[in-house]
């Protein structure tokens, strides 16, 4: 049912799709955005965010900065009926139209300030960093860290025969030479076994034999 002449529209999820849709609808309907965090994060800028806090300031945007004419509920949607969305903080929000734009779940801080601290501490607190993989995300991250933190020991371990295997060997070799010129130690055709319990600071790469306090895989950080 419509209330006060406005259609009630709920968007569950504050990622790119949910945020853009909420912003577009806010002056044409009664819009409610439900998201467990207070901000929109431009995820493809994550690697630059880790190195440059000023860049992160521009790519992590509070929902209220763009959604000026809608309701923001900072909570998790726990159940959905034909007429309502129930949230973890006990709200029952009625709707006429519902959009589910939850994407995938990442364990991220709730507030923008906490997100900055989280990113900054993970890099700056580590003396040595192990990066697992050989694709474009991994190569870019290794390059960012080596450039901005030249004193940190960075090791990249990849099970393949070369980096960036989806492109030609000339570009792959150039990337390898560039990383080595920045003192990144690259181990090819090797694998890393990661335990679910990373509490032991002496956890070692079984082939390289060196402990690393910070391990980065494609899906996120694991702190020892």
From TrEMBL:
InterPro entries: FAD/NAD-bd_sf, FAD/NAD-binding_dom. Belongs to the FAD-dependent oxidoreductase family. It holds the Pfam family Pyr_redox_2. This is Apoptosis-inducing factor-like protein A-like. It comes from the Eukaryota. PANTHER family: APOPTOSIS-INDUCING FACTOR 1, FERROPTOSIS SUPPRESSOR PROTEIN 1. One of its GO terms (molecular function) is electron-transferring-flavoprotein dehydrogenase activity. Residues 10-197 form the FAD/NAD(P)-binding domain. Keywords: FAD, Flavoprotein, Oxidoreductase. GO terms for cellular component: cytoplasm.
């Amino acid at each position: 049912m419509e209330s006060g002449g406005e259609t009630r529209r709920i968007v569950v999820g504050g990622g790119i799709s949910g945020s853009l849709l909420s912003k577009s609808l806010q002056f044409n309907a009664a819009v409610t955005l439900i998201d467990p965090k207070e901000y929109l994060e431009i995820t493809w800028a994550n690697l630059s965010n880790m190195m440059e806090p000023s860049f992160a300031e521009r790519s992590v945007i509070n929902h209220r900065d763009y959604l000026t004419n809608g309701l923001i509920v900072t909570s998790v949607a726990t159940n959905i009926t034909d007429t309502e969305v129930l949230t973890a903080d006990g709200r029952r929000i009625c709707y006429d139209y519902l959009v589910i734009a939850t994407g995938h779940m990442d364990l991220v801080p709730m507030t923008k300030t906490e997100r900055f601290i989280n990113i900054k501490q993970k890099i700056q607190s580590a003396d040595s960093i192990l990066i697992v993989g050989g694709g474009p995300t991994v190569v870019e991250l290794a390059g960012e860290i080596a450039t901005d933190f030249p004193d940190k020991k960075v090791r990249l371990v990849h099970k393949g025969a070369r980096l960036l295997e989806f492109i030609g060997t000339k570009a792959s070799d150039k990337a390898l030479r560039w990383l080595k010129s920045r003192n990144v130690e690259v181990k090819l055709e090797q694998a890393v076994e990661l335990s679910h319990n990373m509490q032991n600071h002496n956890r070692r790469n079984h082939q390289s034999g060196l402990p690393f306090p910070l391990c980065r895989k494609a899906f996120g950080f694991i702190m020892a």
